[in-house]
Amino acid sequence: MVLPPLIQTFVLHFGEMGGRWGVSRTVGQIYALLFVSDRGLNADEITEALGISRSNTSMGLKELEAWRLVRKRHLPGDRRDYFEAPEDVWQIIRTLADERRRREIDPTLSMLRDIMMETPQNPEEQHAQARMAQMHELIELLTGWADDVQRLDNDSLRQLLAMGAGVSRLLDMKNKITVFAGGKRRGVSEGEAS
Amino acid sequence: MVLPPLIQTFVLHFGEMGGRWGVSRTVGQIYALLFVSDRGLNADEITEALGISRSNTSMGLKELEAWRLVRKRHLPGDRRDYFEAPEDVWQIIRTLADERRRREIDPTLSMLRDIMMETPQNPEEQHAQARMAQMHELIELLTGWADDVQRLDNDSLRQLLAMGAGVSRLLDMKNKITVFAGGKRRGVSEGEAS
DNA sequence: CCGTTATTTCAGACATTACTGAAATCTGGG
DNA sequence: CCCAGATTTCAGTAATGTCTGAAATAACGG
Lengths: 194, 194
What we know:
2 copies of one chain form a homodimer. Chain A has helices at residues 5-20, 25-36, 43-50, 54-66, 89-117, 123-150, 154-163, 166-180, and strands at residues 41-42, 71-74, 81-84.
């Protein structure tokens, strides 16, 4: 691998981390390389830069496309495919959240729903089912929330994050308003999303 | 594996999912089993229920303890260790967030900080460093926010989640108030956490 | 202390996943 | 329709990761 030291460190780190994630070392490295690159790269350039086989590059790129983390682009007068990582880091987070949800959360939710249709045959199964229901409820809340936040534009998202623990003060405020209005649960929260 | 069908499905699913996550099939299964169990189980019971080797159980439990997802408990008059998964699903989320952060995010932040101390030697490195700075900023924002939310009690957290997209309306409100107060950036947000 | 039972460690067997090179397929220009 | 460059597929191999049984260690009661 022949890369500027600064970039090499970054790429190698993502390679290692790729493992902890659901992707291979190579896939992590390819993504890291594209992320910091100031222009699209073709498969041969990537192969060369990372010192891996051409076929490995091809597979890695395919996987990254499946994750929607890189996209193909064509340069006029050049038949080769060029690949680049979308620039907007906020969008990257959205994409990641989306894909991980699709691959990890949704199948679990589906399984939980199926199980919850069953009738427990004894106290042991009954307890198990209750636990699964707890898990199901929590996951639904989390993903529902994530869905909503997902739709915020970058500025709103940044604002929300910058607020940090301030959120809890907003919640207090909301509660005061709610109580004030006669305890009829009509604060600024609850349902009716845009 | 001899388990009530309802539980078996759940355990097997977590085994599969374990793979996508950073843990082995066995570890996923052990956790799932403890999660739905209505009492602590000892290593032999787990071994028996999952049809795996005693040593595998021992290693799996050790890993789950490292994740702080299960804890050891002792029953009076019984020398064996009993294991159980903490009950509070909200707390589980906190633990997971905590550990994943420690294992995946923190090392990355550290690496990014190191790289950002370096002086880029050419335009290519300069662009790369700028991209890393973007990533660094985003991760800091996300983790800072997560830290704050982490400290909310279960009810506040539930409320926050239930609010969903309502958050954006709160933000609008905040902005109105801020502007109203003379555009001096003194809304309900910004710094000064509890 | 000693014997018994519980737990952990660890080297090797086994299984899974990642990577490569060669061959096959695709694509666009002539 | 053919050629050359580009990409993908795939079977075999290398590398990792997981699991086991046996042996070592620890913990407790007597």
